[in-house]
Amino acid sequence: MRWGIGRHRYRLEPGLYAAGTPGSASPVLVTANYKMTFDALRGELGGLDAWILVLETDGINVWCAAGKGTFGTEEVVRRVKTTRLAAVVNHGRLILPQLGATGVAAHRVREECGFSVVYGPVRARDIRRFLDQGMEATPEMRRVSFPLFERLALTPVELVGFLKPSAWAFLVLFLLAGVGPQVFSPSAAWHRGLWASGVWLAGILGGAVVTPVLLPWLPGRAFSGKGGLVGGFFAACTVAVWWGGLGVLPGLALLLGLPAISSFAAMNYTGATPFTSPSGVESEMRRAIPLQAAAAALAGVLWIGSAFTG
Amino acid sequence: MEGLRYIEGVATLRLDEAACVGCRMCETVCPHGVFAVERGKARILDKEVCMECGACAKNCPSDALSVNPGVGCASYVIRSWIGGSKSFCTC
After folding, report:
1. Which residues of A touch B1 (CB under 8 A)?
2. Which of A128, A143, A166, A183 is the most buried (most CB within 10 A)?
3. CA torsion sign, A295 to A300 to A306 to A308?
């Protein structure tokens, strides 16, 4: 599931669900129809009696759906009406996950269906405590965090995202690898292509796995910079170990190419984090993409050139 | 946020203090603790941790807050460069 495979089977029917045996005074918790989200919430309720109002978010989690607007004001209002919630509970109150606030305007929900919106904690695991404390969240419940486990849990889906680009990259690399003094050499295509594909993979792993894990400890703010450092470190280690067998031009190509790939892959990870602003990502991309492209192009020229000078 | 901070000086968040009614909604919904409400008015404590999710502006009943909302995601930015569609994310 964490690999993003079969994700579309993970949706459930929107509507009103009962946890335990709720009555007219029981709280109404609003959530997305992504099964992982729903199960996490239900699991945290323990023996508590509550209504769960599941919105149609196309099987997408609260945060992402709120960003898209599917977990939004209109859907809340629509679901309150279609489930006739006003006849089920007597308190006129909905508890929404805090991260749903990006898509929902509490005051408009109230205007349009009479239900008042209370924002609960960010994480489902705090919902019991929130309810027990009379719907009061501590500041800690209101903040997002991004600990090591979560950073790591989001890397598989990043890797899957690079499958298709990687297939194209391998094709291009194997073809370019064969280019040489004899126009095209199948044996060079194989050997040099394998090597170049290894560099590509190291770059992706550096940017999409190692950089996320080391995120707080890598210097700088820009993800592209952090990824470039990791790639540069990989390349420098390889060069240090294999300098003799590598040659000057392929060595330089490696020192430029690997950081470029790793930098790009790391920049892509911004989307998985809960603290990068679109203005920040855009500003870093404007600076980083020309550098990444230049480094990759120069690496390509040096690498192809090395076939003619070898 | 365990020392995780992002690029500074770019967030588009604006607060119009005169329009603020002190309802505390921004303080509640912000996942990074950007706001504090004191003496009936919201104040921006740390603008640089704003990730422009738009929750505060969306839930501000008096339109005192504005932000250019979006997703801080490289592929989203690329898509907005190409297509101009600002509401599409693959997550």
Report:
1. 143-146, 275
2. A143
3. negative
pLDDT tens digits for range A121-171: 999 999 999 999 999 999 999 999 999 999 999 999 899 999 999 999 999
Are A67 and B89 a contacting pair at CB < 8 A?
Answer: yes
- Out of A271, A275, A284, the one facing B1 most closely (by C-beta) is A275
Dihedral (CA of A201, A204, A209, A211) sign: positive
- Total-model pTM: 0.88
B26-38: average pLDDT? 96
Supply the ipTM of this predicted assembly: 0.90
